[in-house]
């Protein structure tokens, strides 16, 4: 009962109470007003999402536990203090539709994770992820490509996890 109440209050605070979005109550969101939420999103426990520079999470996205997303970074070159100063570079992160982000992934400012991609657990995403690819490692690199024909068939039939798990 308490967890349901926490989830309800969190979704209300984030402005997503009327969408099919499931967020565990122990995730942390900074600058949540800069997040564009689509429908059918699941965010596992202990996600840490800091959206100073903007974040768009498209439909049918699954974000695993302990995923960290940053959309800004401190200035250290030409800084007025050490090790960095008070200026932050703001760079939007975009997670396109039907993406699965594995446990313990780190996503840095300014990247786009392409449609239908899978990010393996423990990855550090430092550059854009191509559509329909499986990436992993530190820094994340393409390991292989999804079966695009099968992907498009499932997408067309709307075989999406968050829609079907109801």
Layout of strands and helices, then pairs:
Layout: H1 2-14, E1 21-23, E2 28-30, E3 35-37, E4 41-43, E5 48-50, E6 55-57, E7 62-63, E8 68-70, E9 72-74, E10 88-90, E11 93-95, E12 100-101, E13 106-107, E14 112-113, E15 118-119, E16 124-125, E17 133-137, E18 140-145, H2 148-156, H3 161-164
How does this model look, in words?
The protein is of the alpha/beta class and 166 residues long. It has one domain (2-164): UDP N-Acetylglucosamine Acyltransferase, domain 1 (3 Solenoid), CATH 2.160.10.10. The protein is 16% helix and 32% strand. The protein has three helices and 18 strands. The protein has a seven-stranded mixed β-sheet with strand order 1-4-7-12-15-17-18. A five-stranded parallel β-sheet has the order 2-5-8-13-16, with no helix packed on it. Strands 3-6-11-14 form a four-stranded parallel β-sheet, with no helix packed on it. β17 and β18 (140-145) form a beta hairpin. The chain is globular and about 55 Å long. The two termini are 19 Å apart. The model has no long low-confidence stretch (mean pLDDT 92).
């Amino acid at each position: 009962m308490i967890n349901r109440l926490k989830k309800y209050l969190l979704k209300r605070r984030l402005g997503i109470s009327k969408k099919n979005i499931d967020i565990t109550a122990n995730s942390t969101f900074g600058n949540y007003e800069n997040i564009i939420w689509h429908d059918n999103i699941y965010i596992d426990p202990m996600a840490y999402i800091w959206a100073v520079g903007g974040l768009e999470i498209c439909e049918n996205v699954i974000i695993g536990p302990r995923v960290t997303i940053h959309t800004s970074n401190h200035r250290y070159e030409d800084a007025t203090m050490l090790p960095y100063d008070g200026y932050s570079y703001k760079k939007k992160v975009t997670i396109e539709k039907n993406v699965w982000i594995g446990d313990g992934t780190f996503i840095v400012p300014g990247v786009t994770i392409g449609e239908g991609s899978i990010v393996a657990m423990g990855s550090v995403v430092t550059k854009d992820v191509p559509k329909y690819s499986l990436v992993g490692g530190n820094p994340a690199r393409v390991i292989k490509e999804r079966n695009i024909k099968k992907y498009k068939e499932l997408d067309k039939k709307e075989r999406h996890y968050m829609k079907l798990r109801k």
